[in-house]
Structure formats: structure tokens, C-alpha cells
């Protein structure tokens, strides 16, 4: 898939890496529940032949996780969702699909967690280290079968953009339900 100019270079890189990982883990036309409201990457998955359903806009997945109990889905995807949740463990434990693919932004020693003062839905309650996320998944009943970290450079001048050129920013995993 070629990502056109409607996406920033940073998004193009992230979407390409995520799609490549997804395709190594799942084949189309898998039925996917993509956590979070409709988004550009969900549209890309549909273009690639996946049958994608998103959760409704405004659903608080910390409190309402009935949607993940639906057994009709082959895979649940969660791309940069869990950092926005206060307690992702509960939702992870309730997922009925046998496969989970999730990515998170990693905790960076040189940057604070993202916090949008104007939008209460656009905040990071967690930014995980890989081992923390691995432990969360294992405790919730998931076995990681593939994992990858990658950088996503920011094309600006400064110390932080320079550090982001060689410090992994994203972590993605493919998991199978244990038992």
C-alpha cells in the first residue's frame, strides 16, 4: 500500500510499520474489532481486505467492555489505545477473540507523558516500558508470539527530535489467548 500525502511523514512511517506487522500476524479477510473510534488506520486495514469494526465514539473502555466479549471477532486490535485507559487490565482480561494485536507509545526518559489539557479523552495515563506492558498482557491471559519496537522520527530541530531518531518510540505485539 502506498500512503499518500494526506498523512504526515511520521504517520506514513508508523502506518507502514503497523500494517507490515499486522499482515505478518493476521491474514485478510479476518474479522477485526479495532478498539477506539473510526480512524485513518482502520480505513487502511479495510483497504487491505480486513473486515474492521470500531468501537463507538465516546465509549469509556475502562467502564464498558462488553464489546470485547463478542465472540464473532477473529482479532482485537488496539493501536495506541491502552495508554489512554486508567485500567486496561480489565478490558484485556475480558477479550473473547483468540488473537490480540496492540501497539503502545513507549515511556521516554527525555519526555513527559502526553497530556492534552483541553480534551479529557486525549491524555496518556500510562506510557509503558516494554516489560511493564508484557507483564500486563501475561497477567490478563495473553502470550506474546511476536513483538517489535521502532522509532518514528520527528522532522524538527532540537534535542528531543534528535533523540527520537534513535530511541524506540513504539512497541507492537501479537498475542494469543492462553488456555
Short summary:
The protein is an alpha/beta fold and 179 residues long.
For this entry, give a set of tags.
5 helices; six-stranded mixed sheet; transferase; alpha/beta; methyltransferase activity; Rossmann fold
Describe the SSE topology.
Blueprint: H1 9-25, E1 31-34, H2 40-47, E2 51-54, E3 75-79, H3 88-94, E4 99-105, H4 130-139, E5 142-150, H5 159-163, E6 170-177
Parallel strand pairs: 1-2, 1-3, 3-4
Antiparallel strand pairs: 4-6, 5-6
Give an account of the 3D structure.
The protein is of the alpha/beta class and 179 residues long. It has one domain: Rossmann fold (3-Layer(aba) Sandwich), CATH 3.40.50. It has five helices and six strands, in the order H-E-H-E-E-H-E-H-E-H-E. The protein has a six-stranded mixed beta sheet, sandwiched between helices. Strand 3, helix 3 and strand 4 form a beta-alpha-beta unit. The protein is globular, with a radius of gyration of 16 Å. The mean pLDDT is 88.
The name CATH uses for the topology is Rossmann fold
Count of alpha and pi helical runs: 5
Tell me the overall shape: globular
| Overall mean confidence score, pLDDT | 88
If you compute it from the alpha carbons, what radius of gyration comes out, rounded to the nearest whole angstrom? 16 Å
Encode the helix/strand succession as letters: HEHEEHEHEHE
> Tally of extended strands?
6
Structural class: alpha/beta
CATH architecture identity: 3-Layer(aba) Sandwich
**CATH structural class:** Alpha Beta
Q: How many structural domains can be distinguished in the coordinates?
A: 1
Instruction: State the low-pLDDT regions, or none.
Output: none
Order of strands across the main sheet: 2-1-3-4-6-5
Oligomer classification: single chain
The percent range for strand residues is: 15-25%
Amino acid at each position: 500500500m502506498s500512503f499518500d500525502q494526506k498523512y504526515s511523514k511520521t504517520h506514513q512511517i508508523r502506518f507502514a510499520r503497523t500494517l507490515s506487522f499486522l499482515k505478518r500476524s493476521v491474514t485478510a479477510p479476518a474479522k477485526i474489532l479495532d478498539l477506539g473510534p473510526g480512524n485513518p488506520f482502520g480505513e487502511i486495514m479495510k483497504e487491505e481486505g480486513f473486515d474492521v469494526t470500531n468501537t463507538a465514539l465516546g465509549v469509556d473502555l475502562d467502564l464498558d467492555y462488553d464489546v470485547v466479549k463478542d465472540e464473532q471477532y477473529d482479532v482485537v486490535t488496539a493501536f495506541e489505545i491502552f495508554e489512554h485507559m486508567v485500567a486496561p487490565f480489565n478490558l484485556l482480561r475480558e477479550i473473547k477473540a483468540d488473537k490480540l494485536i496492540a501497539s503502545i507509545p513507549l515511556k521516554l526518559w527525555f519526555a513527559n507523558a502526553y497530556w492534552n489539557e483541553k480534551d479529557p479523552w486525549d491524555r496518556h495515563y500510562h506510557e509503558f516500558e516494554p516489560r511493564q506492558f508484557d507483564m500486563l498482557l501475561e497477567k490478563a491471559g495473553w502470550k506474546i508470539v511476536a513483538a517489535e519496537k521502532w522509532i518514528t522520527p520527528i522532522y524538527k530541530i532540537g534535542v528531543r527530535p534528535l533523540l527520537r531518531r534513535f530511541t524506540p518510540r513504539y512497541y507492537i505485539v501479537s498475542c494469543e489467548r492462553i488456555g
